[in-house]
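R.M. (postdoc): so does anyone remember the format we settled on? I'll just put the structure tokens first.
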């Protein structure tokens, strides 16, 4: 039976406040929690047992899958103290049951990719590899550690983020999906934090282990930042990225219990959650609107996430914003791009305007 580990123990700090109460892999993208998209993909690839490596808000994963009845066994390897990506893999490895040379699929819990998992498993077996890493090509490698390979695909080294153009000797970067020979997991140290990228992989290469890259040009996006998160969700809705849970591409995914005014425009792969209300002439473009959210008349929301039970007042404008749950943006606000509003915060009507306000001064003089 094919086994897999998903790393889901990170705090997801870059996605706060969405991750204050919900771990990143349990946030909803294109109508389902992200981890359910990953589970569906793993099942399509023949995986029969998956181990969740949990730490932050660990109990919520067991809650999410308590009623999961499909043909997949789920185990939980809970870290009381986060062990880092390498330590988490080692710790989750204890719960695997396959033989020492069995290939184990390992996924980061925040990567949306079009990688063919059966294909990477096949390549791993054909090369008799100890470890195979999925590599993707990026246009600007400066934000990533680089992974150069030789002509046969063997990994030569793991390089820190390049600072100069000369240091950009390849555009291949770690795409956050690996196949490990099971026995290799046991070589990772226990009892302390270990980074798979900075420690485990360089050590395996230095020891002469058979570490290979599997480079593809498939769709790939790390959903770790707010903008990447909303764009990943929109790509799933519009079909640019695929998931077994999204049946057909659409301009928007609207929950049947949401109420959308006929003159509202929902575009760009936006998702509208259960019981959300979108008022007349409102525009929601490439955004995620959570359960129970109200968007009033004429409001415009672009490239943003509005978490559950928040409300956006009439004629307000949001760009690349993250609005925490139960927050309220009053009427006629124009928020600066990339603003994050804490859960429950209230901005009064006309409280914030990037482009200046014509409203009369309040009686403060
Ligand atoms: P940021 O805080 O925003 O950087 O997000 P993150 O905590 O998710 O970190 P990062 O994106 O680097 O993590 C990549 C993947 O590894 C994610 O799926 C995390 O859930 C997971 N991860 C990171 N650290 C740990 C850890 O210590 N234990 C476990 N089990 N998983 C981890």
């Amino acid at each position: 039976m094919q086994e897999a580990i998903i790393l889901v123990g990170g705090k997801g700090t870059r996605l706060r406040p969405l991750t204050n109460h919900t771990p990143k892999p349990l946030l909803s993208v294109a109508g389902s929690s992200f981890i359910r998209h990953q589970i569906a993909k793993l099942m399509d690839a023949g995986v029969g047992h998956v181990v969740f490596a949990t730490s932050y808000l660990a109990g919520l994963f067991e809650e999410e899958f308590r009623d999961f009845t499909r043909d997949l066994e789920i185990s939980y390897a809970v870290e009381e103290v986060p062990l880092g990506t390498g330590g988490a893999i080692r710790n989750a490895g204890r719960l695997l049951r396959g033989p020492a040379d069995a290939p184990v699929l390992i996924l980061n819990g925040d990567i949306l990719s079009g990688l063919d998992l059966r294909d990477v498993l096949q390549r791993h077996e054909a090369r008799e590899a100890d470890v195979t890493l999925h590599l993707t090509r990026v246009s600007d490698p400066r934000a990533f550690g680089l992974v150069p390979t030789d002509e046969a695909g063997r990994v030569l080294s793991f390089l820190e983020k390049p600072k100069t153009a000369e240091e950009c000797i390849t555009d291949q970067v770690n795409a956050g999906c690996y196949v490990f020979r099971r026995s290799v997991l046991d070589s990772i140290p226990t009892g302390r934090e270990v980074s798979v990228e900075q420690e485990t992989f360089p050590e395996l290469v230095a020891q002469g282990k058979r570490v290979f890259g599997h480079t593809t040009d498939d769709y790939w996006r790390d959903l770790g930042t707010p903008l990447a998160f909303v764009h990943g969700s929109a790509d799933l809705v519009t079909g640019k990225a695929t998931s077994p849970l999204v049946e057909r591409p659409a301009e928007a995914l609207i929950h049947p219990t949401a109420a959308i005014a006929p003159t509202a425009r929902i575009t760009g792969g936006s998702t509208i959650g259960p019981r959300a209300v979108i008022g007349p002439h409102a525009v929601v473009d490439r955004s995620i609107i959570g359960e129970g959210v109200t968007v009033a008349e004429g409001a415009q929301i672009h490239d943003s996430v509005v978490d559950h039970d928040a409300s956006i007042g009439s004629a307000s404008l949001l760009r690349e914003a993250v609005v925490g749950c139960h927050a309220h943006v009053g009427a006629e606000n124009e928020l600066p791009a990339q603003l994050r509003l804490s859960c429950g915060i209230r901005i009064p009507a006309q409280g914030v305007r990037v482009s200046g306000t014509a409203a009369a001064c309040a009686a403060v003089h």
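R.M.: ...and that's the designed sequence above, right after the tokens. Also worth knowing: The two ends are 74 Å apart (CA to CA). Residues 226-238 form the longest helix (13 residues).
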